[in-house]
Design a protein that fits this description.
The protein is an alpha/beta fold. The protein is built from 13 helices and 9 strands.
């Protein structure tokens, strides 16, 4: 009798685990998205141009790569293409991008150059013209996840661009599931506890996010996982059971690229030319 009880408990736990990690598969856009490698924040470097700059995106396009970029929602509802909420690292200013308007944003320059911080609406025409795809990361701050996702979709709808959307915040992806199910959506993740990311969030929540236990909220089409953490059991489960597409970030060598692609994963790369 005890063995039957244990078997039932294990069966229930397995069912709960499967429901928590559920993914969607079979989106028709994968046939196109899989054809490309993606330059992390554009094709940038000391001799090329700053990350997430128009120059970096033009350089990626010139080489035939898709791009990954980061989007923040400003206080006037416009969208800035920049990775950090603070401009301190990229523009030398101790100010948060969410506190700026588009007009105020234009007074700052990237990494000591003449490059402005672009708006999403300024970047998208480059990819509309080239036909190359984008991985758009939504950077939610201060609980603006729904407003950010809605604003990003509104701008993307104005351009004929092939893209998918990802975020570390599952609430952004949940909004897409509910309101724009036709869009390819992805959950970004890593081993947060190992890398010390996640700010002041409770460790149990970071553990759950790192093990994709919030997939039930968003039912993602893909998982974008840190390359060095890719042996995560829950990630393997999602790939095996749900056949979900995996994207690896950030690939920094040809050897890593070959390893990721041999497993069928897409790559977001930086600091080398995959063509060489």
């Amino acid at each position: 009798m005890i063995y039957l009880f244990i078997a039932l408990v294990l069966l229930v736990l397995a069912e709960v685990f499967a429901l928590l990690t559920v993914c969607r598969r079979g989106h028709s856009y994968w046939k196109l998205l899989r054809q490309y490698r993606y330059a992390h924040r554009g094709y940038h470097g000391r001799e090329l141009g700053p990350e997430n700059s128009l120059t970096a995106f033009r350089e990626a396009i010139r080489r035939g790569f898709g791009c990954e970029l980061d989007v923040h929602l400003m206080k006037d509802g416009r969208l800035a293409v920049i990775h950090d909420a603070s401009l301190l690292r990229t523009a030398g200013a101790d100010v948060l991008v969410e506190d700026l308007t588009a007009e105020e944003l234009k007074q700052y320059r990237l990494e000591g150059t003449e490059e402005e911080i672009p708006l999403l609406e300024e970047v998208l025409p480059l990819f509309e013209e080239s036909g190359l795809p984008l991985v758009v990361e939504l950077k939610a701050e201060r609980g603006n996840h729904d407003a950010l996702a809605a604003a990003a979709c509104e701008v993307l709808d104005r351009f004929r661009v092939l893209y998918c959307i990802e975020s570390f915040d599952p609430r952004c992806i949940r909004w897409l599931k509910k309101n724009r199910p036709e869009i390819v959506r992805g959950q970004l993740s890593e081993n947060f506890l190992r890398h010390g990311d996640g700010g002041n969030m409770p460790k149990v929540l970071l553990w759950a996010l790192g093990n994709l236990l919030t997939n039930c909220l968003a039912k993602p089409d893909f998982i974008a996982y840190r390359f060095s953490d890719r042996n995560n059991f829950c990630l393997r489960w999602c790939r095996l059971v749900y056949r979900v597409q995996e994207i690896n970030w950030t690939i920094i060598t040809k050897e890593e690229m070959r390893e990721a692609e041999s497993a069928g994963n897409l790559v977001i790369f930086q600091d080398f030319d995959p063509r060489l």
